[in-house]
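Trying the structure run again after the queue cleared.
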Amino acid sequence: MNPSITEQRAHHQLTFSVLAAGAATFGLLQSLVSPVLPTIQEALHTSQTNVTWVLTVYLLSASIFTPIMGRLGDMSGKKRMFVIALGALAIGCLLSALATNLLVMIIGRVIQGVGGGVLPLAFGIIRDEFPRDKVAGAVGSVAGLSAAGAGAGIVLAGPIVNAFDYHWLFWIPLILLLLSGLAAQFVVPESPERKAGSINWLTAALLSGWLVALLLAVSEAPSSGWSSARVLVLLAVAVVLVVVWVVAESRAEHPLIDMRMMRIRAVWAANLVALLSGLAFYASFAFLPQLLQTPSAAGYGFGASITESGLMMLPQTVGVFVLGLVAGRMALRFGSKNVVIAGSVIGTVGYLLIAVAHDREWGIYLITLVIGVGVGMAFAAMSNLIVAAVPAHQTGVASGMNANIRTIGGALGASLMASIVTAGASPSGLPEESGYTNGFLMLSGALLLGALAALFIPAVRRDPLTHAEPDVELRHAEAALVPGGTLVGDESE
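Done. Tokens:
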């Protein structure tokens, strides 16, 4: 083994701390502004429709740049691109904090989307630099910390705005990002793995095109209606572009997303689970606080403030955090596939309980804990599956696409939830309780489908010495990715 690599791996715990800090801060920025959009709307003197672009452009930008940053990391160095991703997040936070109008705020959020590469790059660094028996636990923990950071954003938004003002929703992450970026530059070793080639900008443009069309369609649907001409045209454009994109990627000498890799059963099955679990988890960020903040005079809800509703969702964040930390060990003992299935089923029960039993405050605390436990298990173990399923030089782009699909699922879920919740309104103008009931039943059904989709993930034999999972699955993936290679043994055990 190369002595320099051995020396680098001796510091894997310190490296993990830096990667975890960056991932958690990225997760925090995903949700921190969601509960306070009305405050930002008033401060920037804009409309409710326009202020939603603060969220939408971030999703669009992250969807486009996540796989690109993962590919650049595979080509030119994951540590270098990880620092650049943190830098982009910091610059975006600075612009957003200083924004005095909506345009500057939106530009800042677009730049923040470049930071979507933080997760796939962190997974790739772990895969390259950590001892083999530490990879599963570290990947699961980073994934869990990112999800926990997203949950923490909901909890912390109210106290931050009450104590300071909404600008500090960006100043505080900016400080954390600067510290994480400096630590990454001086502590994280540069990974030895490299992927030859270049960015195929044609396929990158096609990827951007269909993602933009799809997310614009699902963003417009709640206000314009799914049957409106604008939404139907955008969906048609997305379908055409995705077909052209797949054909172009399949024929490209240096594809951005290797279609042969995407055909690996562990990869496409984990991506399907990611779509469905992202649909459920991220959609609840906006609508569960809204349910809790509804005045009790409406016949449901608790009339909670932003801070109070955040505290009621605190158990969810705790559940995601704790299970994210232990999911790696659970995966080594029971198998990542089984942990994903169990987490999806637990999450299904949680959303089902929210749908039918949301009239007791103590019950909300218990139910959000159940949701957090399920999501923490599923997200962390899913990341392990992707890392185990592809060769090292494909880690960044594969995990980037998986994270990207979760983002797309979240956008779809939010749009579907908005359509269901706002389908009817009470005389007071508030949504009917049945809208929330039907919406959370839909999210519960999505996670149940995710559990069923996880059954298609092939079981991976564990190394008898280290109990780590990657070996067999890596050999399968490498065979599938080599022209003329034979993929054998791709059956669930």
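Residues 200-253 form one domain. Worth checking whether this holds up in the mutant runs.
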